Amino acid sequence: MPVSNFKVLMNDLIYNKLRHYCAYQERCHEEVRTKLLSLKIYGNNLEEIINKLIEDDFLNEERFAKAYAGGKFRIKKWGRGKIINELKKRKVSAYCINKAMLEIGQEDYLLTLNKLVSVTLKKYKTNNDFETKNKVTRYLISRGYESELVWDLVNKKNLD
Predict the structure, then answer these.
(1) DSSP sequence for 101-153
(2) pLDDT of 3-51, one tens digit each?
(3) What is the DSSP letter of 12?
């Protein structure tokens, strides 16, 4: 078998493997690039496979960002800050991040944060109201919620 036929066959096998990898769950470009590198695919071959996955709509970064943001918000109750940071870690473009943030409605966001404040206030209840509010606020800010929103809601809650 000539070398060029072998190369085409290998690219097809790897392309099919990556197609299944992308079909299983949404992936960002960086995850696919890392997967290809782990399979020892480099240079032009790597770029060709990624381009073919994009052309065939197995790889779509905007779709990934929307699914990621929606899932992390609904399931893990993450705030916008944490979601944005995680998308940036995955080298998702600013355009796709902005599109993903539009998936999280302001009303749902405030409702979720309000529920989290109530639950967390009970969880971190101490004898000192300032200490309780401080713990709750730090926790929710670490989950990616904006500090001014958290402080407003925490201060409006009755700690009795």
Answers:
(1) HTTS-HHHHHHHHHHHHHHHHHHT--S-HHHHHHHHHHHHHHTT--HHHHHHH
(2) 455 566 667 889 999 999 999 999 999 999 999 999 998 888 899 999 9
(3) H
Kindly state whether residues 54 and 7 are assigned to the same domain. Answer: yes
Same domain, 7 and 46: yes
In this structure, are residues 26 and 64 in contact, taking their beta carbons and an 8 Å threshold?
yes
Please give the model's pTM, rounded to 2 decimal places.
0.88
- Burial letters for 18-50: b for 16+ Cβ neighbours within 10 Å, e otherwise? bbebbeeebbbbebbbebbeeeebeeebbeebb
pLDDT of residue 12: 83
Q: Which residues constitute the domain of residue 28?
A: 3-59
Do 70 and 110 sit in the same domain of this protein? no
